[in-house]
Amino acid sequence: MRFDAAIDQYLDDMQMQGRLNTPESLQQYCAKLEMHAEDAGDRGPARVGREDVKRTLARWPNRNTRSSNRAILVSFYDWMVQEGYRRDNPARQTRTIRRRTPPRPRLTEDEARLLLRTADGVSERRTIFLGLCAGLRSAELRGLQGRHLQRAGTVWVSPDIAKGRRERYLPITADLAPIVNEIRSHVEPNEYVLSALWIMGPPHSRDPLECRWHPVSAHWLKALVIRVGRRAGAGIHVTPHTLRHAFAEHIARRTDVVIAQHLLGHSYLSTTARYLRPPRYDDVAAAVEHLSYRSERR
User: Fold this and answer.
1) What is the distance of C-alpha 103 from the center of its chain?
2) Contacts of the segment 3-12: beta carbons below 8 A, 24+ positions apart
3) Contact 79/91 with Cβ under 8 angstroms?
4) Which residues contact 42 (CB under 8 A, 6 or more apart)?
């Protein structure tokens, strides 16, 4: 079997199983496997050995990137074994790469409130409130349509936009209710909550038949959040995932980490726990606020 045929079949199967749900994930897997095919040279995937896998992993000096890409190769060769194309998995014969957890600056609660107050205009308010008050991922925000907000008191994260096709229902909080009411008033069930106009015909065409609304890009969404964060004077670089982390902490501190896991759509509690540790800056500051050497008795 040739590498290109094996990659195509593997990606088709992953999509059918709901493990690759977004164009970004599909493109990432395809690009990494094509790099590996280059490193294998004339050998097909049935003849690849451990050294070929190590040669591909050496492309990425960063251990976290190397660990993520090793997981892609492990998944690909697991599929090869399951389909009967190989007897062993050469990627599993390489050393497991321990990931280094990078520092994740997080929003304080005061900064989160400031972001909510600073968001101005329809797109900014929808994005910031849905990120901070519902914890939606970037892909979920971009795929959200009016149909996801039709049920009273609930934001429905349907399988087609949820990571791993893990459907979930999110209660609408008091902070989020005005935004949801505004969306229900102006967005049809099949329209995107965050949308951009795509002109299909000549430039500046005004013919409605030549225009179509489609979801915004990940780059557009990230730029919007960064802009609001800077305008609010947040002390850290704010991205859509920063909003999701703030939501996780807000829920876990007031309820339970298991509730946070359910609302975030995580498969494992350990994933949610990584969102919550170590203590935030305002927790540490509150703990030492009244400590002073001068107050100690001599």
Assistant:
1) 17
2) 3/33, 3/34, 3/37, 3/40, 3/44, 3/45, 4/37, 6/44, 6/45, 6/76, 6/80, 6/85, 7/33, 7/34, 7/37, 7/76, 9/83, 10/76, 10/79, 10/80
3) no
4) none
For the chain, helix (H) and strand (E) counts, in that order, are 13, 4
Q: What are the pLDDT digits (tens) for 156-196?
A: 999 999 988 889 999 999 999 999 999 999 999 999 999 87
The pair of structure tokens assigned to 254 is: 């007031």
User: Does pLDDT of 201 surpass 60?
Assistant: no
Helix residue ranges per DSSP H, 193-289: 218-232, 240-254, 257-264, 269-276, 281-288
Contacts of 241 (CB under 8 A, 6+ apart): 137, 138
Give the relative orientation of helices 240-254 and 109-118 as an angle to the nearest 10 degrees: 130
Q: In which element (H, E) is residue 106 found?
A: none
With 0-12 / 13-18 / 19 or more C-beta atoms within 10 angstroms meaning exposed / middle / buried, residue 231 is middle
Q: What is the pTM of this model?
A: 0.70
| Number of residues that make up the chain | 298
